[in-house]
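Section handout 9: paired folding examples.
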Amino acid sequence: MKTNIITLLLGVATLFVACESDPAAKAKFPEPKTIECEAGDNPSITLTMEYDWRLSSDALWCKIYNLTEQVQDIAGTAGKHTFTLAISDESQALTDSEAHLTLRMGERSQVVATIVRKAESAELRIFDSEGNPSEAIKIGSKEYLQFSIEANFRFAATSFPEWVDIEGDAISGGANKRTTAGARIVADGSRERYPITAEDGHAITFSSEDGSKSIAVPIIFDGMSDREITIINEAGATFGWEISLDSTEKRIVDDFSGEATPYEGEISYSIAAREDKFEVVCFEMQVVCGIPTYLVSPEWIEFDRTTMTINIEPATESRYGLVMAFPTGIYEEIKGDIKGSLFEMDYASGIGIETLKADYAPYTMLEFVQKDFSEAGAYEGMYIYHSLTAYEIPAKAYTDEEIMAEYGATTAYTCPFVGAVEGKRPGIIIDPRIEEWTTATQESGRATAELHYKGRQLKISENEYYMGENKDEVMAIHLWGPNDDFDEEVYIIFKLDGKAEKLLVVTPPTK
């Protein structure tokens, strides 16, 4: 117990000596103050110090004027002093910043002022596609319309209408860096027809990285140009349509699998154009002697603007149709020569074929074939096509009983030969669809054919025809025709085991 009392007395003595050695130990510090300010301000603070002092700031953006110099700390003697502060925008953020002024007298120190610098105001600027300042974001129709954003904070687009398509699906950028983006309207067959103004209240919202600040920028849209159109087939398919001859059945054939899917109901559309102005043009593709050509405005195809449906009249034989819709700006350019404007000659096959120009393909509403849906037997009819274009040449029933009797045939067909092509020697490929009339039976001598022209029988050695497989690897006759002008019929008798199975009468192309 005696030892503890001695220790306590020694401690008190030590403290007394320390206080005696620090003359400012009993100095009274000014009451702490809070000063609110903004970057660029020069607030002042008056402090009364009883002893020599040192005043320091703990933030680089808050400095103390020493005459004309800005310093981080300053010292002086006892007395009443007024200090002017320099508040800069260094390291300014979107939230309030604090600096502390610490006063030291002797061995003691205390925070005598807290300087609250107001948060930087969030600023975001928009520039149009030409770099001019804009109060709104203008979005495109078919194409993305470019614009730029510049902000004093890191930002990202956090909210925008579902009908706005952002290029790349996102927009983000760094502080004080210009970021380029693009946006367009999501067409639905309706909204793109009409302009959208800032007063409509639609906006893209940009937010800071920490989510503390958000700025909404209005969206504007001029509406479609008179050169734009949106065509929506309610069935979701433009190509691969097949329609029955009586127009009561429809199906869509997959390009890859060949699978046909039945479709019930009308072929209906949503079409959007500026001020709802557009023109529908119908075409019939006719294949003459294996060469396709287009006719404008056939009477059997009609587009009903009231119901927005395509109506197709019944037919007795296969035919091809094409329906297109054009905005007024495009239609005015082509209406003087519709066919000449839309089609060009494609010579890839070695022969000129009328083909729709690629630039006009987006204006297609429907491409279809009207045909007999009844399933033909594997050995019914004949399959004939142009050797260069591969377009089918329909075989029609032949009824001249005298000719049929002459060649011993009870089943006969006729088709035209193909026209001449400069520098080429086109012909026709004929699959007679006769059971067991195959490559194997031809090699064994069972499957044969006789070709008669101008009272003589053609021979394979004359290079006027030959027997071999076609593009489907099926046994066929390849008829090139005589070297001179082809001006009379060629009679082809297809035989199996010496019996005439079918007769084909090939007429000159001019008949």
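Moving on to protein 2 of 2.
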Amino acid sequence: MTLPERLIKLRKAAGLSQEEVADKLELTRQTVSKWETGQSSPDLDKVLPLCNLYGVTPDELLHDGGSDEADELKAQRDAERAEELFDKSVAKKKTIGILSGVFLYFIAIAFVAVAIPVAGINPIIAGAIFLLLFGLATLIIIFSAITYRKNRKENKPRSKGESLYRSIDGILALVTLTFYLLVSFLTGAWYITWIMWIIYAVLTQIVKLIFLIKTGEDYGDED
């Protein structure tokens, strides 16, 4: 069975039309039609989304089991390359999302720092705007973490980079908790010391972003 024939079979088995497939993959119907008529083949960065849509593995999509060894090896390399491109695409989109959230955190902190003493804005209004910006930043980060999440293989051992990330995150949490309790008990200013946890959240996202840019892997998700 050829690739176009498999694409048609899988689409029909999923109960989807070409238009529906195109919408889910953010493509045009003509592109899907060309795949199924053999006029063109799916780009490697579309193989993983196709597999997720049809519930098959890259090898099942690209290889029908009846080809010779050379074709089988080529299909395997294409599948591996498709997974690599997909992971890079996920990492890039997630980096943009996290970076946007961190930027909004800084905007929120800078705003609340100058709004009342410098601009003379009503504290209630300034606080409401701060909470709005903070909530929006958190929403963006959470949305990025959920939407652009990579599936991790079960029982996969932690890499050195992941172990380092976990250690740094643990140290940041411990230091933040220590300072939070110490400063709060000494000053009694519980109404303001909670901002330390905002700083901790910002620092955590910055560390996560650094590792994401450096390694292309997200160590912040637990499956």
